[in-house]
DNA sequence: AACCTGAACAACCGCGGTGTT
DNA sequence: AAACACCGCGGTTGTTCAGGT
């Protein structure tokens, strides 16, 4: 009757992942690909439940994740999509391919919600475009609390303190960065026995907008001020050796398993949303267009 | 210097939908 | 068809650290 249990709850380790565990998990997924999470702790010997393995991979270890420092553009997208979709973080994350739903959710709860409250309390207007102006008031990276964003130099100093590894804004990422050193060359040495996983989470994968699917690492705004030319992703060039492969390599190995026709349909969808985000006058028309696309496209906000 | 408070974020928990037997 | 487990999502909690007192 039914499947066997996914994992024995007894002896399951909890809490932060160690670099060693990350190495084991990344190595296993490199060999076997993501998915079939039930088998991961069994085959790797990790004392983690399958759920924890999936979460660790999806939210932290998988390639293509951009961490820290949300840009004003990203904030604008999140704010607007949240207003449209509600707290459907996975759906929102589908429009920010480099961000995880968990990241967006955390960012919303710790930054944006407060900003919105502050903005709403200081303004009687509830206009979307007005709210948007709060978040997209400049083109630079928005990094911290509303108060801090008013003093970017102070904010940067605070970040420098919190994230001594300049290109890796997470202190934990710093430790994971050490993993990358251990893994240095690991991915490249192999002959790609299995295609690299998609740059997105497994969830709702078939509804991803597939922005710049040929090179997900170039999607949206680059982080500024790293001096690498590739912004923050430089950190992940090391952390996620998948990313060292050119985009063409991804596609040669099966790409991201995104139906080509969906890609063709999804790109204009994102353009519409971007138009909507930054063109108040077009907002109503864009919403109508989105609705029109609902029959032929993947993902459409339905909560109007 | 020690303690307190709040911010930030990683990870866990519980639930619902879906797939498998 | 029913029972059960898997998977993914959203809410919540726990931990760490910086800044203030």
TrEMBL record:
One example of a Gene Ontology biological process annotation: response to auxin
Keywords, in A-Z order: DNA-binding, Nucleus, Repeat, Transcription, Transcription regulation
Localization annotation: Nucleus
Protein name as annotated: Uncharacterized protein
PANTHER family: MYB FAMILY TRANSCRIPTION FACTOR, MYB-LIKE DNA-BINDING DOMAIN CONTAINING PROTEIN, EXPRESSED
Cited InterPro entries: Myb_dom, Myb_TF_plants, SANT/Myb
Coiled-coil positions: none
Myb-like domain segment(s): 9-61, 62-112
Domain HTH myb-type: 9-65, 66-116
Keyword DNA-binding: yes
Keyword Endoplasmic reticulum recorded: no
Organism: Zizania palustris
Highest taxon, organism lineage: Eukaryota
Gene Ontology CC terms, in alphabetical order: nucleus
GO MF, one example: DNA binding
């Amino acid at each position: 009757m039914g499947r066997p249990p996914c994992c024995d709850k007894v002896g399951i380790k909890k809490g932060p992942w160690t670099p060693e565990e990350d190495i084991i998990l990344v190595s296993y997924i490199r060999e076997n690909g993501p998915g079939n999470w039930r088998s991961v702790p069994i085959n790797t010997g990790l004392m983690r439940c399958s759920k924890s393995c999936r979460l660790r991979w999806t939210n932290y270890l998988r390639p293509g994740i951009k961490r820290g420092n949300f840009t004003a553009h990203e904030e604008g997208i999140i704010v607007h999509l949240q207003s449209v979709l509600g707290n459907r973080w996975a759906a929102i994350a589908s429009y920010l391919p480099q961000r995880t739903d968990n990241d967006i959710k955390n960012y919303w709860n710790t930054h944006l919600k407060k900003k919105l409250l502050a903005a709403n309390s200081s303004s009687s207007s509830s206009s979307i475009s007005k709210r948007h102006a709060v978040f997209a008031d400049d083109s630079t990276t928005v990094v911290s609390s509303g108060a801090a964003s008013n003093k970017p130099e102070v904010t940067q100093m605070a970040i420098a303190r919190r994230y001594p590894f300049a290109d890796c804004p997470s202190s934990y990422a710093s430790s994971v960065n050490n993993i990358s050193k251990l893994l240095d060359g690991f991915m490249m040495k192999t002959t790609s026995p299995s295609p690299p996983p998609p740059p997105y989470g497994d969830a709702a994968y078939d509804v991803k907008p597939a922005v710049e699917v040929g090179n997900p690492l170039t999607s949206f705004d680059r982080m500024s001020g790293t001096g690498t030319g590739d912004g923050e992703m430089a950190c992940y060039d090391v952390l996620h050796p998948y990313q060292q492969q050119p985009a063409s390599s991804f596609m040669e190995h099966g790409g991201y398993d995104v139906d080509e026709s969906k890609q063709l349909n999804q790109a204009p969808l994102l353009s519409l949303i971007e138009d909507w985000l930054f063109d108040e006058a077009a907002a109503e028309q864009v919403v109508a267009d989105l609705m029109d696309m609902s029959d032929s496209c993947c993902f459409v906000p339905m909560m109007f």
